[in-house]
């Protein structure tokens, strides 16, 4: 199964920790994601620019509205993501727990849904049996 | 009167249904399919066993019957679903090839089921409901009434939890290595939640509900039997619950009012429970890997084994609280330690220990902190302070039995 690990932390608190800390954390992230890529666990991923650079786009009644900032103000902000392949949730949790910013913020682990049709081993019987 | 075949079948089913279910979930990879298969296997047994006799290995028979019923069911519906047809074929092929391997795994299936139902990625109330439903075999109605909730609420909680197990890929496995210890905490917490709900209900006037307490103790016993190696904290929790359970008939008087530990009739305490708990506590303590459950059980054990309230070994209890504080540095543990100090060294020393703790906001909102201070003031003869504290405690609890108890204490001050 594929899982998206969304990395959140408080940008303000991270800034307070200073430049050296930031540089070291970046290096740590590079080396962890590098290892995951080599072993084929990590399919994709990236760090993100801070939320001050975010733009939110909505379409209502055919009208495009564009606003400054993230879609919601939160204590911790989305800072990056890892798309990984894992055997199951326990496996994904193991990978996520080693993402360096997990020590400061939070990692949300979400199973990826294949909207082009579920692979055969992922078909929930109950759904196929028409019980949902 | 000899048991009829139907009665025997009912007995087999009562003993085996949870084990069969646990194995079917593993073999079929789906909770709902496994539950239907279990029902079908039981119906088949009711038809076949009266004529053919009860098989030598009824559990294996039920697993096998359930499994093939599930494959049949998939095949019947598969006429319209190609993928389902493939699933049925895969399951059928596995059923032929792996019989021996699977029999070897059967012992672990209930443990897998426990760890899956108590997975920390499920909400605590979902873990509790799912465990009671799938591991203990309670009906949704029984769970709802035990927790004073509506049946549809509980039913939906269980459906959602099963959905998450499936969609998020929560595996049907017993975690290994370090993960086992972490996840064991989650299992123990679920068991203790079940127990506490039965022990002291905060929402109903019906103060003690034995059923959930018994259920929690059975779960703890099962867990300890199934774990691949002895786990000190699993023993500790089991012991802790046994010790509370040992006093179940003395916690309330004839009128249903709460009776404090030092006023309970010790001759009514269940000595078998206490002896079992004592052995568990000693085993756990000697492992050197004990934690908060074991220490709480040790404290409860000192009380349980003391011949009278007056003879309680408060020095040992204070020492155990010192240790417990290291494992569980919470305000409530500190409060209980202060109470123990008041018993060992007198109310003055108790107040001294309690004073800095009341700086804590949470503790100031905790009725038992005020009740404890009231008791220390009462023993010092400072009756107006005691009254003030009892009244404060009354304001902070909504539990009718506790309110009545505090009211009695206030009335006694006037005597």
TrEMBL record, chain A:
According to the lineage, what is the superkingdom?
Answer: Bacteria
Per the similarity annotation, which family is this? Belongs to the YciI family.
Xref: Gene3D superfamilies:
Dimeric alpha+beta barrel
Pfam families registered for this protein in UniProt:
YCII (PF03795)
What are the top taxonomic ranks of the organism? Bacteria, Pseudomonadati, Pseudomonadota, Gammaproteobacteria, Oceanospirillales
Q: Which organism is it from?
A: Alcanivorax nanhaiticus
Listed PANTHER family: BLL7171 PROTEIN, BLL7171 PROTEIN-RELATED
Coiled-coil stretches are: none
- Please report the name of this protein according to its UniProt entry: YCII-related domain-containing protein
| Domain (YCII-related) ranges | 1-114
Automatic annotation (TrEMBL), chain B:
InterPro entries registered for this protein in UniProt? DUF6596, RNA_pol_sigma-70_dom, RNA_pol_sigma70_r2, RNA_pol_sigma70_r4_t2, RNA_pol_sigma_r2, RNA_pol_sigma_r3/r4-like, WH-like_DNA-bd_sf
Q: Any idea where the RNA polymerase sigma-70 region domain is?
A: 17-79
**Where does the record place the DUF6596 domain?**
183-284
Q: Name one GO biological process term.
A: DNA-templated transcription initiation
Could you tell me which Gene3D superfamilies the record lists for this protein?
1.10.1740.10, Winged helix-like DNA-binding domain superfamily/Winged helix DNA-binding domain
The molecular function terms in GO held by this entry are: DNA binding; sigma factor activity
Q: Which residues form a coiled coil?
A: none
Domain RNA polymerase sigma factor 70 region 4 type: from-to ranges: 114-164
Among Pfam families, the record links this protein to: DUF6596 (PF20239), Sigma70_r2 (PF04542), Sigma70_r4_2 (PF08281)
What name does this protein carry? Sigma-70 family RNA polymerase sigma factor
């Amino acid at each position: 199964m594929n899982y998206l690990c969304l990395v959140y932390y408080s940008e303000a608190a991270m800034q307070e920790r200073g430049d050296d800390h930031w540089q070291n954390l970046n290096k740590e992230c590079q080396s962890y994601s590098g290892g995951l890529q080599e072993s084929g666990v990590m399919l994709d991923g990236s760090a993100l620019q801070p939320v001050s650079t975010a733009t939110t786009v909505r379409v209502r009644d055919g009208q495009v509205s564009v606003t400054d900032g993230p879609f919601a103000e939160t204590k911790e902000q989305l800072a990056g993501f890892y798309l990984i392949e894992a055997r199951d949730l326990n496996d994904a949790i193991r990978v996520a727990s080693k993402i360096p910013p997990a020590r400061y913020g939070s990692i949300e682990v979400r199973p990826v849904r294949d909207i082009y049709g579920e692979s055969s081993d992922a078909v929930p019987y109950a759904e196929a049996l028409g019980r949902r | 009167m000899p048991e009829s075949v139907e009665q025997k079948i009912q007995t087999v089913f009562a003993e085996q249904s949870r084990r069969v279910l646990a194995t079917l979930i593993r073999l079929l990879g789906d909770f709902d399919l496994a539950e239907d298969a279990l029902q079908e296997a039981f119906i088949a047994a009711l038809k076949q066993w009266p004529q053919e006799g009860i098989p030598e290995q009824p559990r294996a028979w039920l697993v096998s019957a359930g499994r093939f019923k599930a494959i049949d069911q998939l095949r019947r519906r598969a006429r319209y679903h190609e993928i389902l047809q493939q699933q049925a074929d895969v399951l059928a092929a596995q059923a032929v090839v792996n019989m021996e391997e699977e029999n070897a795994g059967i012992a672990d299936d209930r443990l897998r089921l426990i760890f899956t139902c108590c997975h920390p990625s499920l909400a605590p109330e979902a873990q509790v409901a799912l465990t009671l439903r799938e591991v203990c075999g309670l009906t949704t109605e029984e769970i709802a009434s035990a927790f004073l909730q509506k049946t549809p609420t509980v039913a939906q909680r269980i459906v959602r939890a099963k959905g998450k197990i499936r969609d998020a890929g929560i595996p049907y496995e017993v975690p290994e290595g370090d993960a086992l210890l972490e996840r064991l905490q989650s299992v123990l917490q679920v068991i203790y939640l079940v127990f506490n709900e039965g022990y002291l209900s905060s929402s109903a006037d019906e103060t003690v509900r034995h059923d959930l307490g018994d259920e929690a103790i059975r779960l703890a016993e099962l867990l300890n039997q199934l774990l691949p190696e002895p786990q000190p904290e699993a023993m500790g929790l089991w012991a802790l619950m046994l010790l509370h359970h040992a006093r179940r008939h003395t916690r309330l008087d004839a009128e249903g009012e709460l009776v404090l530990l030092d006023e309970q009739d010790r001759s009514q305490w269940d000595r078998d429970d206490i002896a079992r708990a004592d052995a568990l506590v000693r085993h756990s303590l000697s492992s050197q890997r004990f934690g908060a459950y074991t220490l709480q059980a040790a404290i409860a054990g000192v009380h349980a084994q003391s011949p009278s309230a007056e003879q309680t070994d408060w020095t040992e209890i204070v020492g155990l609280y010192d240790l417990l504080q290291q494992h569980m540095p919470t305000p409530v543990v500190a409060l209980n330690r202060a109470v123990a100090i008041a018993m060992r060294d007198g109310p003055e020393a108790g107040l001294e220990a309690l004073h800095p703790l009341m700086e804590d906001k949470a503790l100031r909102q905790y009725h038992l902190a005020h009740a404890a201070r009231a008791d220390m003031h009462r023993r010092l003869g400072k009756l107006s302070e005691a009254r003030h504290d009892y009244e404060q405690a009354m304001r902070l609890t909504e539990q009718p039995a506790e309110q009545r108890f505090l009211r009695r204490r206030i009335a006694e001050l006037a005597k």
